[in-house]
Amino acid sequence: MATPKICFRASSTPEAHAAFEALRGLYDNTPIENADVIVAIGGDGFMLHTLHETMASQLPIYGLNKGTVGFLMNPFNADDLIERLTHAELACIHPLAMSATDASGTVKNALAINEVSLLRETRQSAKLRISVDGKVRMEELLCDGALVSTPAGSTAYNLSAHGPILPIDAELLALTPISAFRPRRWRGALLSHHAKVRFEVLDPSKRPVSAVADHYEVRDVVSVDIEENREINLNLLFDEGHSLDERVLSEQFVQ
User: Fold this and answer.
1) What SS3 state is found at 127?
2) How far apart are CA 195 and CA 165, in angstroms?
């Protein structure tokens, strides 16, 4: 097998920059238009940034951890990179498409790899109406917010909000409330990946809400529509025996 042509990208932290320089001394750094694979050096946040920035290239991305958690990354080692890339396991994920309408009537669109979250902007709790596939499923949810998560994002903010962990190949989305006050015992719902979710903000002038697709925020929204975009394939590479499927499964048995 031919040696893959690598495009290296690194976050702005000193640790990632030092790793980038070490790798540049061992391997050629190929422009993205001629590369076979992207190697992203940093943490999970930088991996999400790289996925967004290079989405049009459709190149697989292999992460090297120089961040904190590194759930989407592989351990850093400069010496055996080519062998690890050659034997890496592929995980294909799909983003969420968010269409958010703000108080002025402006519609803003964005993609989310992890989740789309609605969050209260002030001390006042958010008041949301939730519809799925055109049918109102919850007339009023009083909460700090709510989110819709992909399987890839189910171990991130969704898990912190006590949402379910989803296997990567599950054709599901997680709809999870954030600090629900009324109905207090509602824990969310599992939805088909074909589901179209709509949030309507009730009393938005008194209870303003923002919508966030990964790192992109829209303030003062009045409605937000979310659905999975299956036409976009994002390919992540993981070390042999440490696939994303395995990581998600192991996360469910953490004690």
Assistant:
1) strand
2) 18
So what's the pLDDT on residue 94? 95
183 upstream amide cis, omega within 30 of 0 = yes
Q: What is the pLDDT of residue 241?
A: 86
Closest CA to 244 of 150, 106, 130: 150
Q: Is the pLDDT of residue 108 over 70?
A: yes
Q: In what side-by-side order are the strands of the sheet with 172-178?
A: 189-192, 172-178, 145-149, 115-120, 209-213, 216-218
Which residue's entry shows tokens 């171990």? 155
pTM, two decimal places: 0.89
- Confidence category of residue 216, pLDDT binned at 50, 70, 90: very high
Q: Please report the domains of the chain, with CATH numbers, ordered by start residue.
A: 6-93+233-251 (3.40.50.10330), 96-228 (2.60.200.30)
Annotated catalytic residues are 44
Cβ contact 120:145 at 8 Å: yes
Q: How far apart are CA 144 and CA 15, in angstroms?
A: 36
